[in-house]
Amino acid sequence: MLKNNLSLIFIIILATVLRFYQLGQNPPSLNWDETAHGYNAYSILKTGRDEYGYRLPLSFRSFDDYKPPIYTYLVVPSIAAFGLNDFAVRFPSAALGVLTVIFTYFMVFELFKNRTIAFLSSLFLAISPWHLQFSRVAFETNSAIFWSVLGTWAFLKGIRAKGLRITAWMSLTAIAFGVNLFMYHNARVFIPIFSIILLFISKDWLLKNKKYLVVPAIIAIIFSAVLIPIIFSISGQLRYKGTTIFADLSPQYKASQLIAQDEQSGQLTVGRILHNRRFVYIPILVENYLSHLKPTYLFFTADMDRHHAPQIGLLYLWDLPFVLAGVYFLIRKKFETKPKIIIFWWFLIAPVASSVTWGVPHALRSEIYLPTYQIFTAIGVYIFYKYVRFKRLYLILTATALFINFAFYLHQYYVHMPIEYSKSWLYGRREAALFSESVKNNYDRIIVSTKIDQSHEFWLYYLKYDPQKYLTEGGTVSGGYLEDKNKFDKYFFKPIDFDKQQKEAKTLFVGLPSEFPSNIKILKIVYYLNGEPAIYIVSS
């Protein structure tokens, strides 16, 4: 028992250090979603309203992407404790990342009643590049994994409990899954589908103990009753139409274009049948789904710079043989049927929500895969150990290979990522905002280019502008990318027309290098960490 406790304590310490070390410094800047969480949480803390003036919203309008509310509300006490800074904004994600590692151990143990597989699953999640990448940034998807793991663990405890303990465990399940529906958009697809299989494989037990399930059922109904109007509201539909391949403006398919081509070829009737979107989207969905399983995506490139360290994918290359072995062993070996169904169902439905969106594969939208990959890896490592002849040599070689992969990842993440990917992390916004504020009194106005994406949010956040004052001045007009009417104090957020605007008043301009002519008076150049010019600050 002492050995088991010490092993778990070691994993917890490791997970904590990896998620909190330099949390406020690396990645080297917040992106726009993180600043939105931060400033809206700050506004809630100070005024009870978000940047638009909505009181305690259940959906944050933000950049007109209408974020689920839970993560922003988790940032509120963090800011109250640590102040408005990058560490505070990322703190809930890192903390829930550590808790996910812990509860992965408990969940896997309930599934297989095998402490070694549970420890290994927890350890592999603790050092997972995929999980670490998103535990260290304020993205809601990482927190959604915690609620999925917690709810599943509580469900497994519940079906083995008796009497009122059933009510307690199943209520925790309902709360965890219910909260997840307000954590991240993809959870609104994953949780209902995942819950179906949990209920199905336990239907006989549930019917037998239905008198203990009244309270959990009421909790589930309450969460659903609150969520459904949000999903079908105008704001909910805007988010859906902005990301789904089924929208008319989807970059993947426009039925009208194909129909027009058929009309020109005299095949209009046939075209209307063959290009009916109910048929045409099937191969697109299949392709999108399978794209999440590409080896290059998983082990080398991921999908975009912000989602991985240089030359590192979402999983270690070391993982590959053990993931494949784990899948094989889980199918062929004498594990209980229910755990098999739960893990494989989780794995199979994880990319469903991401597959109906454009821009796939997408590491952020499909992170809900975790911790299934780590469970497969743990099973593979464990079963191999049982069957190999030279066990000590196997352990030495396996541990050495993993350590090399892990050490390379840490080097890439802490040394190369801040430099190579500082542009992708929107580095320089803090520096530009603070400099513009330091010379503000020398100018009648400051124009900050909207080509510095969501510039108003960065300036509000980094200047810690008083939310009450901001709302009094009108608050945010719109978070859309084309919005040019946002302003506060001397700051105006709009496209730069330098030749015209410099004549209107004594103006300080903040924009991208490409927005200015050559004969300008540059007060400051903010550079990306790789030495490339990021932002010009120019005087009229």
UniProtKB/TrEMBL annotation:
Keywords: Cell membrane, Glycosyltransferase, Membrane, Transferase, Transmembrane, Transmembrane helix. It is found in: Cell membrane. It is a multi-pass membrane protein. It comes from the Bacteria. The chain crosses the membrane at residues 87-109, 116-132, 138-156, 163-183, 189-206, 213-234, 313-331, 343-362, 368-385, 392-414. The keyword Transmembrane helix applies. GO terms for molecular function: pentosyltransferase activity. GO terms for biological process: lipopolysaccharide biosynthetic process. Residues 67-228 form the Glycosyltransferase RgtA/B/C/D-like domain. GO terms for cellular component: plasma membrane. Pfam families: PMT_2. The keyword Plastid does not apply. This is Glycosyltransferase RgtA/B/C/D-like domain-containing protein. It comes from Candidatus Curtissbacteria bacterium GW2011_GWC2_38_9.
